[in-house]
Amino acid sequence: xxxxxxxxxxxxxxxxxxxxxxxxxxxxxxxxxxxxxxxxxxxxxxxxxxxxxxxxxxxxxxxxxxxxxxxxxxxxxxxxxxxxxxxxxxxxxxxxxxxxxxxxxxxxxxxxxxxxxxxxxxxxxxxxxxxxxxxxxxxxxxxxxxxxxxxxxxxxxxxxxxxxxxxxxxxxxxxxxxxxxxxxxxxxxxxxxxxxxxxxxxxxxxxxxxxxxxxxxxxxxxxxxxxxxxxxxxxxxxxxxxxxxxxxxxxxxxxxxxxxxxxxxxxxxxxxxxxx
Length: 276
Description:
- There is one protein chain.
- Strands 1-2-3-5-4 form a five-stranded mixed beta sheet, with helices on both faces.
- The N terminus and C terminus are likely disordered.
- About 55% of the residues lie in helices and about 10% in strands.
- By secondary structure, the protein is an alpha/beta fold.
- The two termini are about 25 Å apart.
- Strand 4 and strand 5 form a beta hairpin.
- It is built from twelve helices and five strands.
- It is globular, with a radius of gyration of 20 Å.
- It folds into two domains: about 110 residues, Zincin-like, CATH 3.30.2010; about 140 residues, no CATH class.
């Protein structure tokens, strides 16, 4: 399996290189694995057996749906710049990918999860987290390159929860605030604001990783609920929170923590059991 994955990765790189070299008088080496591309305007899905063309087509449907829904939400705000709305998206269904991820305008989906998604016995219970990754393509915060993905992942998890029709990690369609409160209580407390990024990049345990995503998303939802989408996106795209809403990020974090604490004291139960 490792060799197959390595061959797939080399072959997919060769396909991308051959596309880039069209019209430049050069040709890439023959791929070792038969890589196929399902194409629509502005969207390519790259795959290999045992993924079928029908599966690739349905993945494309999901990507287009996620893009349409995400843009419908973001375009409610006059602040959303819309500069990435027409960026072509490439989806690589990759045996090497351990989890869905994104780099620039390329989305990586684990091949085994795609196959499970179309398994008739479990269909409708497995999420590909496509909305999450599409949001990363459509909305790049002012902080992503230099300071990390605190805001980017907060918005992505929030919109995955709000707009996708399948339950997905980390809250599986349960209320973000309630699940965050329960997860923090189970782990012994919320992560420090400055620790959420490192807890995603180098998590000390699965619970810390999940809590980091939950905190970022719950904080995002809290800001949007309290100040509105325009104000949130102004902060997302680099304006000082103090200039936008009259509070520092640390003060806003403190207010959100007080809210989560109030939820914990209300004993919301234990919604932590994940679907098998």
